[in-house]
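Query structure, 387 tokens:
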């Protein structure tokens, strides 16, 4: 299974910082993912610092396999101070440690109870309650569940369940029951909706319930969707040994999933070896990037270094809604779960032309940076094969 995960947030009205903090990390070698959502006391900078500290500390504890997730969360729970005025925790949290086989360990302290949805029905999970040894009013729930293909998990801060509190329609707020109705209706409408879209939908609906759509608290929703992975392959750069052109072309042809080519030399290689003509796009490209081309059996064909460099820039900034070759390549990457790069090691002398912009880097460095961004920021699985 592939774990499609994303979190969307909005700040409390009139605040400059998020009081909730979300952190997630994949461990490809272990087929494992850890995610933590923390809600800091109050809002603004103070809440941001507290939630960031809690989430980061929990992630570091949990990723150390010498300490079980239950023990890790218990250490954090017993360490978090209590506000002297309000007598409540400085920060609450939800944490999950899950592998690709669907075995999940979850701990919650203070946050709303998560939703576990299968076939658009909410399942009830058994849990163990652990009392804090330091604070009498603080308890932690520990779950161990087995997930199946198609299951979804939804975590949120109380900004979601308490949205609309005291308003005209929902004097008691949205609450967990209202969230269940929202999510089930959306899944009935779009059963394969992505985690990004569903988490954004939950945040938007919670904000819309508030008076004048001004959130009275930070609103965060994290969604995990367990599904079949969407595989993709990007072939860029000619192989170091030209005698292996045919071998790599056949690898590209037989790949099961979406395919892209980045680079004119690479496209000519595939065209020659597989006897597939290249058709140029005659429309004018936005910006200075060359237009895309077309080839049977290939989903996207672009120019090489210039397009890859601009794609990396878009991925790092998050601003990629642009109708040019790099924008199309970004969408190709983000619509994939497991991204495979075939990177040719043959040097192209054109990359060393002093007339070219100084920000253009050697292909290997660009792909390495792109891989890092795709994994850390967009939670993708990436594999690079140098040829």
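Result returned for the query:
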């Amino acid at each position: 299974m592939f774990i499609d995960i994303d979190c969307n947030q909005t700040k409390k009205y009139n605040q400059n910082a998020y009081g909730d903090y979300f952190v997630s990390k994949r461990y490809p070698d272990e087929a494992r993912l850890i995610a933590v959502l923390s809600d800091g006391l109050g809002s603004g900078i103070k809440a941001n610092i507290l939630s960031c500290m809690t989430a980061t500390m929990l992630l570091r504890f949990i990723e150390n396999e010498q300490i079980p997730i239950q023990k890790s969360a218990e250490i954090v729970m017993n360490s978090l101070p209590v506000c002297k005025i309000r007598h409540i925790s400085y920060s609450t949290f939800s944490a999950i440690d899950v592998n690709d086989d669907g075995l999940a360990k979850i701990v919650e302290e203070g946050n709303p109870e998560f939703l576990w949805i299968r076939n658009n029905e909410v399942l009830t999970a058994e849990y163990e309650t652990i009392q804090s040894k330091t604070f009498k009013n603080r308890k932690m729930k520990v779950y161990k569940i087995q997930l199946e293909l198609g299951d979804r998990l939804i975590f949120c801060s109380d900004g979601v369940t308490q949205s609309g509190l005291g308003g005209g329609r929902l004097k008691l707020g949205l609450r967990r029951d209202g969230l269940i109705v929202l999510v089930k209706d959306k899944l009935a409408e779009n059963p394969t909706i992505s985690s990004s879209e569903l988490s954004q939908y939950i945040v938007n609906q919670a904000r819309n319930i508030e008076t004048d759509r001004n959130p009275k608290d930070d609103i965060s929703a994290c969604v995990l969707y367990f599904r079949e992975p969407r595989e993709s392959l990007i072939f860029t750069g000619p192989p170091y040994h030209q005698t292996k052109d045919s071998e790599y072309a056949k690898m590209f042809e037989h790949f099961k999933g979406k395919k892209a080519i980045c680079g004119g030399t690479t496209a000519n290689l595939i065209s020659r070896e597989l006897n597939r003509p290249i058709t140029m796009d005659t429309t004018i490209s936005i910006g200075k990037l060359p237009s895309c081309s077309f080839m049977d059996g290939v989903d996207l064909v672009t120019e090489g270094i210039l397009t890859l460099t601009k794609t990396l820039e878009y991925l790092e900034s998050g601003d990629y809604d642009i109708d040019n070759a790099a924008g199309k390549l970004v969408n190709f990457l983000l619509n994939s779960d497991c991204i495979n790069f075939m990177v040719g090691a043959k040097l192209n002398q054109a990359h060393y032309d002093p007339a070219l912009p100084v920000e253009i880097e050697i292909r290997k460095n660009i792909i390495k940076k792109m891989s890092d961004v795709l994994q850390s920021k967009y939670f993708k699985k990436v594999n690079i094969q140098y040829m």
